[in-house]
Amino acid sequence: MDIYFIIAFMACIFYAFYKYKKALQMLQQNWYNEGNRYLKWLSHNVKKVVCFSELLLLAVFIPFDYQFKIIVLDILLLYLCYAYSQKNKKDQTKIKLVVTKRIKRLIMTISLVYLIPVLFSVYFEQSPVLIILCFIIFNTFAYLIVYFANIINKPIEKMVFLYYKRQAITKLKNMPYMKVIGITGSYGKTSSKNILYDILSIKFNSFKTPKNFNTTYGLINSINNYLDKFCDYFIAEMGAFKQGDIKELCDLMQPQFGIITTIGTAHLESFGNQENIINGKFELIESLPSNGIGILNMDDPLQRNYNIKNKCNILWISTENKNADLYATNIKITSDGTKFDCFFKGDKKKYTFETNLLGDHNVYNILAGVLLGYKLGINIDRLQSAVSRVQPVEHRLQLKHYNEKISIIDDAYNSNPVGSKKALDVLRLMPGKRVIVTPGMIELGSEQYKLNYEFGQQISKVADYVILVGEKQTKPIYEGLVDSHYDKTKICVINDVKKAFRIIDDFSDKKIYVLLENDLPDIFNE
Fold it and tell me: φ and ψ at 318, to 5 degrees?
């Protein structure tokens, strides 16, 4: 085997490493093709998926003898490796590939695909150039091979899932005294979970699902790897992308308490319609035992008008209706935090709560936590103390100081029609120049253009400067701004969010507040 073949072989492997790393990253960010997300991404990104110029390498195989072929291939492959590695350095990567056990199993499957031409060539004593030919084809269609490898591995992943699920169920059965609190909703789940955890922890040994572990896989992982056997209350964030997802989580967790934050249009594309979203969220309340407690938002008409079939105890929170079980009034929101008064049903005494959290939507999250804490036996003095110590959730209206001149309102985790409006309300309170940096909202189905257009109109009333990330993605926001007679010279469109702060640094204002509203994963990079 000559040195030229070895160079070509190694160049193919090196190139494959870069390409499959990116393909696996996209598969992971598309939830391993759940709901055909990865397949849809492939169809929308054909130019990224298949680089047909790579197939031009195959032309070398036709007219030339072995020695010339292999030397030319060496040159072309090494150049291709260099060009791709340089491109990879320039690409903005927000969420890196996490090399989980599942990813490792996919890598093994892909490796077996690459092993086939090697074994074939050796067994049938074919020209080693055949190996290079196959490798070039495999590299060209790397994204598709990852798709098929994911399909091949499905039976294995099902067995792995069932093994860890049985392990989680067994662990839960061995903790009969632990109570489970489920939290769901279109928006505010993570904030509500963290607030409730801070409140309950003042008296109880509580556990919350880490980060955004809100799927069946996430809850199983939380139970098996993080849950302490001395836990009194397990606070489980429950996410859903289609009807039936919450029911599946409830069947696993058997919650005794349930909180629905707000119902809106998040994941409208995967749910199909608003009715499915409502029914999907209420699967939590319908799954509670008859002696369970469900806490709902009386100011949300979608919750208030829902016909609950369950006979469990339903408690209501509100900032508008005094008949609620916990009613908040005199809400004062400043750039430093929020203060409000509370009245419990049947108690005429007024109780004042203060928090450094921003936004009136957090009042509802606090009310839900306070009401449940009260029902679980925490006295009001301790509830007030707990609320005063609640810290903002990372990337959810988190106020940070970038430098003496610039402060950031970090709301980059996610964005939706309700949350984005609340974020703008917070930005409006800031005593300085107000800037918004956003790529807009996604996964809103047929409503996406309309809702982003309206978002642009809302921005025009608040922001002094607008930085849009992604020309195609933010086109409806731009049009909403322009149609609202917003000054075009104060709109900047970029394709890399890192450029935003270089632009903001050039502003001459003494104090600038920057709202980072949403940060789309790499699958939406333009």
Answer: -165, 155
pLDDT at site 520: 52
CA 431 – CA 335 distance, rounded (Å): 8
Which long-range contacts does 90-98 make (Cβ < 8 Å, 24+ apart)? 91/525, 92/496, 92/497, 92/498, 92/522, 92/525, 93/25, 93/522, 94/519, 94/520, 94/521, 94/522, 95/25, 95/29, 95/521, 95/522, 96/25, 97/21, 97/24, 97/25, 97/28, 98/28
Length of the chain: 526
Q: Which two tokens stand for residue 477?
A: 């926001």
Q: Are 452 and 470 in contact (CB under 8 A)?
A: no
Quick check: helix, strand or coil at residue 453? helix
> CA nearest 140: which of 21, 12, 255?
12
Residue 267 has pLDDT above 80, yes or no: no
Question: What is the spatial distance between Cα 249 and Cα 258, in angstroms, rounded to a whole number?
Answer: 12
Q: Mean pLDDT for the chain?
A: 87
The crossing angle, in degrees rounded to 10, of helices 129-140 and 142-152 is 80
Contact (Cβ atoms closer than 8 angstroms) between residue 22 and residue 87: no
The pair phi, psi for residue 114, each rounded to 5°, is -70, -25
pTM: 0.81
What number of helices (H) and strands (E) belong to the chain?
20, 15
* Helix or strand (DSSP H, E) at 467: strand 465-469
SS3 sequence, 261-294? CECCCCCHHHHCCHHHHHHHHHHHHHCCCCCCEE
CA–CA gap between residue 195 and residue 357 (Å, rounded): 10
- The domains located in the chain, with CATH, are 3-152 (no CATH), 167-388 (3.40.1190.10), 398-524 (3.90.190.20)
State pLDDT tens for residues 387-419: 999 988 777 788 888 787 888 888 877 777 878
d(CA 109, CA 52): 24
Structure tokens at 412: 């980059």
